[in-house]
Amino acid sequence: MIDTSAIADPSRPASARGLSKTYGTGPTAVAALRGVTVEFARGTFTAVMGPSGSGKSTLMHCLAGLDRPTGGHVYVSGRDLTTLDDRQLTRIRRDHIGFVFQSFNLVPTLTARQNILLPLDLAGRRADPARLGATVAALGLGDRLDHRPGELSGGQQQRVAIARALVTEPDVVFADEPTGALDSSTAAGLLELLRRSCHELGQTVVMVTHDPIAAAHADRALLLSDGLLVRELERPTAAAVLDQMRSSAS
Ligand SMILES: Nc1ncnc2c1ncn2[C@@H]1O[C@H](COP(=O)(O)OP(=O)(O)OP(=O)(O)O)[C@@H](O)[C@H]1O
């Protein structure tokens, strides 16, 4: 069989067209996404915002191939994920997508270093030592690499999860509330790292956040409301984001 993931196109990291997702059926069905069309260009940093229940996590999970949409299309690295079987989807996730979960999802029995290198090990790849060193140093993890997750603070575990997502150099990184467990100065350092990795290394990052100050580090902020994309702000400031959040809530 032809390995279709071999023809992936990294210049088109991620997009969605008419994306919908309904959980359940009948009277209890919940329409979490109701036709979202959006494009994430290479080397850009996007913040996804919106009230609780507006569909942010569902959007990230569908874009990352962790959840199957009920309608529309998702493209990652130029491939339509909705046409792939589970094996092909797993391969695209492994080779082209990084994901930072709200709950970190670290392996408790492995050290920080082993957790960071796990996706590369599973793919039979070696880490680029320069990329690994720069990522670990920028995240302030240099002296924590031999500790297990249980010996790390929540913020340190968060940073290990982020290093793990970046070190494979995926075409796109999806991060669900990556600054949620961090104090404000560590959060600012992480956001600066994400921004630099987009602008200097061509990384593409899509981040869910509730925090307008975090969103102001991004190139663009998207506002979801009730499963729809209702606003897009280019070069957002915290004040402009707050303003849009207030006006879409009223
Ligand atoms: N597995 C599921 N089964 C049923 N309904 C779900 C499921 N996951 C999400 N939903 C519903 O879909 C809607 C969107 O949820 P989602 O988690 O995407 O929102 P969110 O914007 O990420 O919220 P939050 O900011 O609280 O994390 C909500 O009404 C939620 O209750």
UniProtKB/TrEMBL annotation:
Pfam family, one: ABC_tran
Keywords tagged on the record: ATP-binding, Nucleotide-binding, Transport
InterPro entries (alphabetical): AAA+_ATPase, ABC_transporter-like_ATP-bd, ABC_transporter-like_CS, ABC_transpr_LolD-like, MacB-like_ATP-bd, P-loop_NTPase
Transmembrane portions of the chain: none
A GO molecular function held by the record: ATP binding
PROSITE patterns (alphabetical): ABC_TRANSPORTER_1, ABC_TRANSPORTER_2
Origin superkingdom: Bacteria
Gene Ontology CC annotations of this record: membrane protein complex; plasma membrane
Region ranges (Disordered): 1-21
SMART domains assigned to the protein according to its UniProt record, in alphabetical order: AAA
Domain ABC transporter: 14-245
Annotated protein name in UniProt: Putative ABC transport system ATP-binding protein
